[in-house]
Specification:
Helix content is 28%, strand content 25%. The chain has 473 residues and is an alpha+beta fold.
């Protein structure tokens, strides 16, 4: 069995680490000194000595606790918040992780030399995380940060949280330079499988283009940068995996990562396999936005990956990292040169307003990160703007709320086409999304002409257009 390890020792309701763990003389065991808390039962308090935590044969995370050679408890999965918090606080999962076999869903494809040199030789490192709400929230990201601090206690870390709720890999590829590459990370974590699936509803091509855009830009910007892509999971993806089918988003992301030699964590498949084996439930995992238990599984798999990469005894403290080879382009239309264009670069008529919207008078939910930002706004039909850009694609990064409208656009004086900004999540929220207007253009200089359409989505309550940035590739 492979458990996400919630420590439940029979007769011992609570306990905590008393000392730093020590190596056991038994190759298959870890000797972990424990201190019993005062709330333990007399029977539990009578168990003196240093318990030895033994890994179950074939178990990635499960183990037995032995006191003086006598088995008194077994690990299992428990649904209560108390046990989840205990695991997160006391780090029993980490204690056992070093003894666990690496999951088949952990795909190590490089040595992580750059991060190793930064963390052990320079003793200073920048670690960035980009993704959607799963990254932005206090979840796996925070656990990975804690794990790195513990592994490298003398390293001065800078952690960059570039997660933005609801955003997909298309948005990620276009904002990568501003939000991530500008910080010059030594180690980058990427997470977009869930949002590419449920928020953007991307076809395989868009999943591929977004992920290749991120990975190729990162490789070009810093060939030594180490990268990990993690595929999280939602119910539709889980259902596909249950029937031995690979979800579109995680499958596309995995293919791109493998092509670029980037290591991956297929958490989606791991969760599906554990649920099928009755070792985990979706409720315990925590849903699309995992609870501590689910995030701990992800963080543990990442620790397995890094532990394996850094396990070589002859590595030493190398002073120079080896650059990663830049793979050939998979999709010429990928957003590998994706970037943002400020809205003040456009020429617009007097129907447009550049500034912070009067949000108090605008119905619909708002997220705080956007409420103080300048954006280019109008709700006037036929309001027009023009933008000169250089690239092979053009799009809009917008907030699309209950009143989101449609736009009509023309490239280089061509026929006008229509794009709907309203999203199915726009009904109650000013939803951040990237709408690509034109792709596959001949690379070079182009002009976008855009106007607000007189028609709108049947569920929209207006014709509003609120542009955060233009995006181009």
């Amino acid at each position: 069995m492979r458990f996400a390890c919630f420590l439940i020792l029979l007769l011992i309701p609570t306990f905590s680490m008393a000392q730093t763990r020590t190596q056991s003389p038994d190759a298959d065991a870890l000797a972990v000194p424990l201190r019993l808390d005062s709330g333990c039962s007399p029977a539990a308090q009578g168990l003196a000595g240093k318990p030895r935590l033994m890994r179950c044969p074939g178990a990635g995370h499960g183990f037995f606790a032995h006191f003086h050679g006598r088995q008194v408890g077994i690990l299992g999965v428990h649904a209560s918040d108390r046990e989840q918090c205990a695991v997160q606080q006391h780090r029993y999962v980490d204690t056992l992780q070093e003894a666990a076999e690496t999951s088949a869903n952990v795909h190590l494809r490089n040595r992580f030399d750059n991060a190793w040199v930064a963390f052990t030789v320079k003793k200073k490192g920048t670690v960035a995380f980009i993704g959607g709400s799963i990254t932005e929230m206090m979840g796996y990201r925070v656990m990975v940060e804690e794990d790195l601090r513990r592994r490298f206690p003398n390293t001065d870390f800078t952690f960059v949280n570039a997660g933005i709720s609801s955003t997909c890999s298309t948005t990620g590829a276009h904002r990568l330079t501003r939000d991530v590459l500008s910080t010059q990370p030594d180690l980058l974590f990427v997470e977009f499988a869930v949002n590419d699936d449920q928020d953007a509803s991307h076809a395989e091509r868009e999943c591929r283009r977004g992920m290749e855009g991120i990975l190729r830009q990162a490789r070009v910007a810093n060939p030594a940068m180490d990268i990990v892509v993690t595929h999280f999971v939602n119910p539709p993806m889980l259902e596909l995996l249950k029937h031995k089918k690979t979800p579109v988003s995680s499958g596309a992301h995995e293919a791109v990562a493998a092509h670029y030699g980037v290591s991956t964590i297929d958490l989606a498949r791991e969760v599906a396999e554990r649920i099928e084996a009755n070792e985990l439930t979706w409720a315990i995992y925590g849903g699309t936005h995992p609870k501590p238990a689910g995030n701990r599984i992800a963080a543990d798999m990442i620790e397995q990956l890094l532990g394996e990469a850094w396990a070589e005894k002859d590595r030493g403290e190398q002073g120079k990292a080896s650059p990663h080879k830049l793979a050939s382009v998979l999709d010429p239309g990928s957003y590998s040169q994706g970037r943002l264009i400020a809205v003040n670069k456009a020429d617009f008529d007097k129907s447009w307003v550049l500034g912070v919207p009067a949000w108090g008078a605008i119905p619909g939910g708002k997220r705080g990160r956007f409420t103080q930002l300048d954006m280019l706004c109008t709700d006037v039909s036929n309001a027009e703007l023009k933008l000169d850009f250089n690239g092979q694609a053009i799009g809009l990064y917008v907030l699309a709320g209950p009143d989101a409208g449609c736009v009509e656009y023309s490239i280089d004086g061509g026929k006008f086409k229509k794009a709907d900004l309203f999203h199915r999540f726009s009904k109650g929220l000013h939803y951040p999304r990237t709408v690509m207007l034109a792709t596959g253009l001949k690379r070079g200089a182009h002009r976008l002409t855009m106007r607000v359409a007189t028609t709108r989505h049947e569920q929209s309550k207006g014709n509003a257009v609120r542009i955060l940035e233009f995006v181009t590739n």
